[in-house]
Amino acid sequence: MSNILHRPWLRNSLIAAMLMAVLVGAVAWFTRPKPVAVVVAEVGRGKVEATIANTRAGSVEACQRTRLSTMAGGRIELLAVKEGDRVTKGQLLMKLWNDDQQGQQVVAAAQLDSARKRQNEACTMAATAAREAERQTTLRQQEFISIAREDAARSEANARAAACETAAADVTQAQARLALTRIEQRRMVLVAPFGGTVARIVGEVGEYSTPSPPGVPTPPAIDLIDDSCLYVKAPLDEVDAPRLKTGMPVRITIDALPGSSFAGRIKRIAPYVSALEKQARTVDIEATFDEPAKAGPLLVGYSADTEVILDVREGVLRVPTAALLEGSRVLVLDGESLVERKLRTGLSNWQFTEVLEGLSGGERVVTSLEREGVKAGVRAIADPAARE
Predict the structure, then answer these.
(1) Which of 37, 95, 252, 374 would bridge 383 by S-S if both were Cys, CB 3.0 to 4.6 A apart?
(2) Helices (H) and strands (E) in the chain — how many of each?
(3) CA–CA separation, 129 and 131 (whole Å)
(4) Coil, strand or helix: which one is 356?
């Protein structure tokens, strides 16, 4: 060392080399890649559910809804309700012009009255003839009259009895004609088959209303909805159908009520697969609300989503499902490095996945996997501006 100090050129070279090393180190330090900012979530315990969600938005439906049309066409004479009115079962909704049918009813009623009077006359005469025949039989037995006289009286009684039966048949026929006129009139009116709300009316007084023939999509005259009973109808992928059972719990969310969810149960599973679009084969389910009052007044047709809850586990170790890479792998922020871990997972849904092996509580996993440069081995820091 003393030799170096006594040799200025060697001492200067050593100092220069040390300065160069410090400079190179400083340059390497300050020019190293900046750490990637990542969004992290802390591994913790909580509830994990295995669920099935609808493939397309479902809708709120009424338990009873009917689109009414008269059985015959005609000019609207009376509209007894307006759109939005609440009606009771059996209430008159619409009536078409049918004065001709009412006239036929009057005629049929008069014919029935005449037929009854003829029946009364014929049957009275038949009863009189029967008594006379009995009297003639008694007289013949006493040998006051001939057998021919008795036979004539008996024949007259039989003829009168037949006339009475014919008159009774005429009364029955007249009653049927009167009933037919009343049935024809019912073809020209609409009454509410159940209590509900009038959703829509097609037509005004004086316009012609046409019934809907089979296969022809004619608009109904009145759309009636029973909104006192509602359910949600939603399509699920056909591959999930084998796991579905009636009575399974569901979670219902309604677009018009953001931030709220409602418990329910599967009431019905369609017994067939629908193929409305290419490569979109679904099975419809119907779910009812456990507590309809909590949902409040809902409009039929509201867009709604349904999650079927297959299984639930409480207090298990879990990570956000968004943190999972293909093959059940995650990136863990260990100090300032991203380290890849292989997991063994359990229940999973779109929000959380159960961790059986591979992580411990408190570790931080990366959820911003889509950010550029996020991969195992790189330097990283937790993004303070975005936390999960």
Answers:
(1) 37
(2) 5, 22
(3) 5
(4) strand
